[in-house]
């Protein structure tokens, strides 16, 4: 079954979940929450100023206490991680859940996210440089993904006992029941799920799924003045923002 294979075959029409389901659900399309122009410029600005990044989020203090991500299994659900990138030495596994026969990152977003989390360049360390990275390719080069791909990948993440799942995705609503219930199953298995809330701000009620679920940690954006960025989606609360 695809959920437990190293190199998956997306053409396989069924998974373990499909076999157990007693009802059918229309396939949902997910869109990739890529960086907007504003967020991209801000990210580049921060990457050029490592001292500002570490002071803003307190990474240096955490490192001094020994919190470097060691022995943490981190799954990055994205466009993959560039195979020849020199700043990643702790990638444990790469899996592909799409209908494209490649394990490489031809867009760069997954590589960027992995760098923020666990980059090992001395000039710009990731926030948890000792984290064990598991790269899940769930988006095509056209930034397309579907519910069934995520369900299979989620099943595999549960099977190999991941600690944290990081997603840069957004669904259109809360009505994709198989996906929502799988997120509940993931968190019920003591796996932390972190997901981008979206770049559809500044109005409230613009959160994307799964970041709008109560058991998921949603991540927003801040601007140069340390306030919520105008492009960042909004929910009903801003707990821990801007420093979280």
Structure commentary:
With 244 residues, the protein is α/β, with parallel strands linked by helices. The protein has a single domain, classed as Rossmann fold. The protein contains 7 helices and 11 strands. Strands 3-6-2-8-10-11 form a 6-stranded parallel β-sheet, sandwiched between helices. Strands 7-1-9 form a 3-stranded antiparallel β-sheet. Strand 4 and strand 5 (124-125) form a beta hairpin. The N and C termini lie far apart (38 Å). Residues 1-26 have low confidence and may be disordered.
Kindly report how far apart the N and C termini lie: 38 Å
Mean pLDDT: 76
Please, how many helices? 7
Tell me the name of the CATH class: Alpha Beta
The CATH topology assignment is Rossmann fold
The biggest beta sheet is recorded as: 6 strands, parallel
What's the architecture, going by CATH? 3-Layer(aba) Sandwich
Shape: globular
Please, how many domains? 1
Please write the string of helix (H) and strand (E) elements. Answer: HEHHHEEHEEEEHEEHEE
- CATH superfamily heading: Peptidase S8/S53 domain
Give descriptors for this structure:
Rossmann fold; three-stranded antiparallel beta sheet; single chain; alpha/beta; 7 helices; 244 residues; six-stranded parallel beta sheet
Topology, element by element:
Blueprint: H1 16-20, E1 29-32, H2 37-47, H3 50-57, H4 59-64, E2 73-78, E3 91-96, H5 109-118, E4 120-121, E5 124-125, E6 132-137, E7 144-146, H6 147-159, E8 164-167, E9 169-170, H7 177-188, E10 192-196, E11 217-219
Parallel strand pairs: 2-6, 2-8, 3-6, 8-10, 10-11
Antiparallel strand pairs: 1-7, 1-9, 4-5
Helix pairs in contact: 6-7
């Amino acid at each position: 079954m695809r959920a437990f294979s190293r190199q998956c075959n997306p053409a396989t029409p069924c998974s373990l979940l499909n076999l157990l389901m007693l009802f059918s659900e229309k396939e949902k399309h997910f869109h990739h929450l890529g960086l907007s122009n504003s967020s991209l410029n801000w990210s580049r600005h921060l990457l050029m100023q490592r001292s500002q990044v570490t002071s803003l989020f307190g990474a240096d203090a955490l490192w001094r206490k020994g919190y470097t991500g060691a022995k943490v299994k981190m799954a990055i659900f994205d466009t993959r991680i560039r195979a020849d990138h020199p700043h990643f030495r702790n990638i444990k596994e790469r899996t592909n859940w799409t209908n494209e026969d490649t394990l490489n990152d031809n867009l760069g977003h997954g590589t960027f996210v992995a760098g923020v989390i666990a980059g090992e360049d001395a000039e710009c360390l990731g926030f948890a440089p000792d984290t064990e990275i598991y790269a899940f390719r769930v988006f095509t080069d056209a930034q397309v993904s579907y519910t069934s791909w995520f369900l299979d990948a989620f099943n595999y993440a549960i099977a190999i006992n991941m600690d944290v799942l990081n997603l840069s995705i957004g669904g259109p609503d809360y009505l994709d029941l198989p996906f929502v219930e799988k997120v509940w199953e993931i968190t019920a298995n003591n796996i932390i799920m972190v997901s981008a809330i979206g770049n559809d701000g500044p109005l409230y009620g613009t959160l994307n799924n799964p970041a709008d679920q109560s058991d998921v940690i949603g991540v927003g954006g801040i601007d140069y003045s340390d306030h919520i960025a105008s492009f960042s989606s909004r929910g009903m609360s801003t707990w821990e923002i801007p420093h979280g």
